[in-house]
Amino acid sequence: MMEEIKLMKGNEAVAEAAIRCGCDGYFGYPITPQSEILETLMALEPWKTTGMVVLQAESETASINMVYGGAGCGKKVMTSSSSPGISLMQEGLSYIAGAELPCVVVNVTRGGPGLGTIQPSQADYFQTVKGGGHGDYKLITLAPASVQEMADHTVLAFDLAFKYRNPVMVLSDGIIGQMMEKVQLPPYQPRLTDEQVREQCPWATTGKHGRKQQNVITSLELRSEEMEKINNRLQEKYNQVEQNEVRFEEYFCDDAEYLITAFGSCARICQKTIEILRSEGIKAGLLRPITLYPFPTEAIAKFAKQVKGILSVELNAGQMVEDVRLAVNGVTPVEFYGRQGGMTPTPDEVVKALKSKLIK
Amino acid sequence: MTLEEIIKPENQIYGKTPLLTETPMHYCPGCSHGVVHKLIAEVIEEMNIADKTVGIAPVGCAVFAYNYIDIDWQEAAHGRAPALATAVKRLNPENCVFTYQGDGDLAAIGTAETIHACNRGENIAIFFINNGIYGMTGGQMAPTTLEGMKTATCPNGRDVSMEGYPLKISEMLALLDGTCYVTRQAVHTAASTVRAKKAIRKALENSMASKGTSIVEVVSTCNSGWKMTPHQANKWMVENMFPAYPLGDIKDR
Lengths: 360, 253
Fold this sequence. Notes:
Chain A is α/β, with parallel strands linked by helices. Chain A is 43% helix and 20% strand.
């Protein structure tokens, strides 16, 4: 089928995009506010059309380990969850990163810590971009700000996952997951055949099929000198990711005297803030990181020389602001404004915060 | 007659299967892992399915199982092998898929993954080595440790009032509708080894035929953990482990 325009929830867009981009398997567990992803997949029954496997696991721990198993076979596999569930997946994510397997994990975040709330939050930023599980590894992290991007990033996440043989997180939140917008769905791509998988993923454990060498998926290496080499290789890969995959969006930044940094749903709120500030004659712009890892460090450093101050607006107690400060490196003042626990700021609230913290 | 004249290929009635690699096994002398590895390799070879078999290795003593059997393998996190196997088999249904797990892996940290994979009737074989102790970490108590049995973490013997009872997990798994074959075997004598090999073959055949989940528990020794010679350990296993974990088929449908 061709491209299609529909009105749908962000979560539903993820499910539709996954089927359309040739996903082989989804393994997940229900948790609010992302359960519609599994529900939509179950309703669409893609196993009847594309052959995609969809399975409700017994837990998030099992889900991510099913993803590990499927990714080890060279298949396009994914899971989705929300904050407490993602915490349970950290063990598996560390193993998947260690074994250098491609997979997609969608996190439609909610407020924490603990059981927290089912309302949106961006308090999983640290957990996502700074590791989360044990060991030195990175998740490529995409931060959609619209239902359209929920679909687009699902497709892009698979491309990046296979390009770098690395897990990719789509870090959304309860607003983007639940809100409805118009979305242009991608055209259907067929799933790879078993022969194509063996050709494109020569490392995959598909059964040897005449291959002389066995394939082993593992993250175990007891010799320290070898383990250091593996870690160095991982870091080289992350350097490549940082050089090639930084994505961000500028909104009225060219002549900005004040810069707001915000991602995801919070960036949508701050767009309105920029309009209000501009209508009052205050030259403000918004820089929205689309990739949270790799972070748009250079772009922010460039604007740091241009603006009188930067305000990082987040739905947390101040997490991304640390990366903004590292990028700015003291060149201009960096302030933070955030709401927590599922609360979201109004555009006017952010206007007030910017004025009081940076203009005074 | 020289040795070469006596040992001729045409006179050979038994040899190492080519599926077992030349890598020297790291297992302690008298440990059952080596024998079970050999049986699995032989069965895969005899069934001619080496090209489409994927094994899932555990955490614990058998963590390097992939170094010894020349097929594709995935190394799972502790206890998660049945979850990996679930996806491997579902995404490649023509593959023969098995997990190889110890009692700490399968019956403690991986209890949930084990029970639910079995309950879903995943078309996999589970080879479960039960030596009643955590071998690799130095002989601590396992869920399968016998009442009164001394380990590093119950040095005065397992006290069921404090630590609960030995977990008869195969009997539990046999109750689940998803399991098609649950059996308990041993490899301490030639006769028992022959029976264990038949059980392993049936389990792998069930995976190929998509009949449901098969579990082959092998009651085993841990000479190092039990602090016994191989001979003492075998005797102790017969006298103490077998009454608690009786050998034979628990379920076959």
